[in-house]
C-alpha cells in the first residue's frame, strides 16, 4: 500500500496543485513513484473542474516543474483515504478540521509549512489576488516544504517496513 498525501488549499488551482506537482517531481527524482502518491483538493467549490491557474503554471514551469490537474473539493471521505493531509494556511486547516468534529483525524492533518527547514513562514500565502512574484514565492516555499515532507515520509515508510520484519 502506498503512502498517500493530500495537499489542500482554498481553490485547488494555485497552491495545492503546485505542492502536488512539486512533490511528484521530487518523488520521481528519488525513484519512489508507487510508494508515495499525491493528490490535491480545495476546501471551496469555486473552481471545481478547472486546470491549475496559468500564473502558477508559469512560475512552476520556470523552476522546471510541469503542472497538471483538475480542481476538486475536499470531502470528509478524504480523511480515511489519505495518510497525511497538508493544509496550506490556517484557514484551510480550520476548514478541514470543521469537517472532523470529533477530532478523530487531527493527527493526520498538518500545516504544510511545518515541514519547511529553510523558511520561517508558518503559512503558504494565498497568491491569487497578487502579482507574479507571489507565485514564484509560493513555489520556492513549497520546494522547501516538499523536501522536508519527503524526508518525513521516507522515515515513516522505513518505520513501517521495520514493523513488518
Ligand atoms: P488557491 O488560490 O487556494 O491557492 O487555489 C485561490 C484560488 C482562488 C481563489 C482564492 C485563492 N478565489 O477566491 O477564487
Question: What can you see in these coordinates?
Answer:
- By secondary structure, this protein is an alpha/beta fold.
- The protein has a single domain, classed as Response regulator (Rossmann fold, 3-Layer(aba) Sandwich).
- Helices cover 42% and strands 13% of the residues.
- It has five helices and four strands; from the N terminus they run βαβααβαβα.
- The chain has a four-stranded parallel sheet.
- α1 crosses α5.
- The site of 4-nitrophenyl phosphate has 10 residues, from loops.
- It catalyses: O-phospho-L-tyrosyl-[protein] + H2O = L-tyrosyl-[protein] + phosphate.
* Tally of separate helices: 5
Which radius of gyration do the C-alpha atoms yield?
A: 15 Å
* Structural class label: alpha/beta
**What distance separates the N and C termini?**
16 Å
Q: What general form does the structure show?
A: globular
Main beta sheet: 4 strands, parallel
Mean pLDDT: 97
**From the coordinates shown, what is the CATH architecture?**
3-Layer(aba) Sandwich
Oligomeric nature of the chains: single chain
Strand numbers in spatial order across the main sheet: 2-1-3-4
Instruction: List the secondary-structure elements in sequence, H or E.
Output: EHEHHEHEH
Strands, count = 4
Low-confidence stretches are none
The total number of structural domains is 1
Strand content: 5-15%
Helix content: 40-55%
The CATH topology is given as Rossmann fold
Give every kind of bound small molecule, once each. 4-nitrophenyl phosphate
Using the coordinates above, name the CATH class: Alpha Beta
Amino acid at each position: 500500500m502506498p503512502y498517500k498525501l493530500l495537499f489542500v488549499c482554498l481553490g485547488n488551482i494555485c497552491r495545492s496543485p503546485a505542492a502536488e506537482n512539486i512533490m511528484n517531481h521530487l518523488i520521481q527524482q528519488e525513484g519512489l513513484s508507487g510508494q508515495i502518491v499525491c493528490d490535491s483538493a480545495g476546501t471551496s467549490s469555486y473552481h471545481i473542474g478547472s486546470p491549475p491557474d496559468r500564473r502558477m503554471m508559469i512560475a512552476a514551469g520556470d523552476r522546471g516543474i510541469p503542472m497538471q490537474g483538475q480542481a476538486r473539493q475536499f470531502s470528509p471521505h478524504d480523511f480515511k483515504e489519505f495518510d497525511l493531509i497538508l493544509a496550506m494556511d490556517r484557514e484551510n486547516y480550520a476548514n478541514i478540521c470543521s469537517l472532523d468534529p470529533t477530532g478523530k483525524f487531527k493527527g493526520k492533518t498538518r500545516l504544510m509549512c511545518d515541514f519547511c527547514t529553510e523558511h520561517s513562514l508558518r503559512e503558504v500565502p494565498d497568491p491569487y489576488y497578487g502579482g507574479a512574484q507571489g507565485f514564484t514565492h509560493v513555489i520556492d516555499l513549497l520546494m522547501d516544504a516538499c523536501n522536508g515532507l519527503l524526508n518525513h515520509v521516507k522515515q515513516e515508510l522505513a518505520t513501517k517496513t521495520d514493523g513488518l520484519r
